[in-house]
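2024-03-11 09:14:02 DEBUG pipeline.ingest accepted 1 chain
2024-03-11 09:14:02 DEBUG pipeline.ingest length=335
2024-03-11 09:14:03 DEBUG pipeline.predict start
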Amino acid sequence: MPKKRSKTPSKGKTRREKKSVDAGVKTGIPSSDTGKKMDNEKTGSHSFTRKDAVRTAALMGAAAGIAVLSTAVSRVIPPPPVPEGDTTVRIIPPLESVDSGNGADILLRMQDELRRALAKPMEARRWLMVIDTRKCVGCHACTVACMAENKLPPGVVYRPVVTEEIGRYPRQVIRFFPRPCMQCDHPSCVNVCPVRATWKRPDGVVIVDYDRCIGCRYCLTACPYGARTSDFGNYYTEHTPEIEPYEKKPNHEYRKSWDRTGHHSPVGNARKCHFCLHRLEEGLLPQCVSTCIGRANYFGDGNDATSLAAEMARSHNQVKLLEEMGTKPTVIYLV
């Protein structure tokens, strides 16, 4: 009678161990290592070797070295020269047909004060914005007007409106905070730029040189207010049969013509609010100020104590965002 074959592997080895031994014989790899290799192949994992650790450390060290070098270079490269003195004086004729006296719309008063400020050299004026949150109704008109004025693409917003909820229902209050660039006196975005593409003008406005900007986005990370965004070259109508012609029109930030078609600047650059400098230097208020239906924005020369903006800045119920960061923001909120 034939003997039944035993199901138990010989010499006390399991089938898995025998398979490992056979694989080791074929490949020349010790059986214990072969078993580990088979386990790794099944689970999809790979052991982290000393070589991998050295490579990772080298990459991290190189990245840190580049960051330190870029910061050092930023201290050496001087920013582009900014015009000062009489060359920055702008003589804007007054609107004789419009009465900006008592009882007139505050826009007319601020327009007159703007004309007076432009008659001084750039270093003698300091632009100031005060936002009264008690008047803001959260209509986002300023956001839309800014996008239209500067022809902003998708993902680029200079003046979003942040909503804050206070209390609980039924005693709940909603407050709106329009958030332009804070135009800080100690801007953290300026110090990190490796090519000195951003700096603060004598009149207090922090600007970006699109021709110098390399799109590293260090400034986006450094800004505690999230006031900077990157232009990725997108269009609102790019997935339609044809991009609308109005999206291809150049914008005129910083009093220059910028054509985004062909992936030219400011595509790939950091972008931010600049108080509509191209309007200011033509004697016009920032577009967000002119558009506000509640007249919640006050804008003018902070060095002119008689200006409406400077007057509102002396209110006792004022706050500034994230003062503890040490950036010294110049945009003031009334609460």
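2024-03-11 09:14:41 DEBUG pipeline.report DSSP finds eleven helices and ten strands in the chain.
2024-03-11 09:14:41 DEBUG pipeline.predict end
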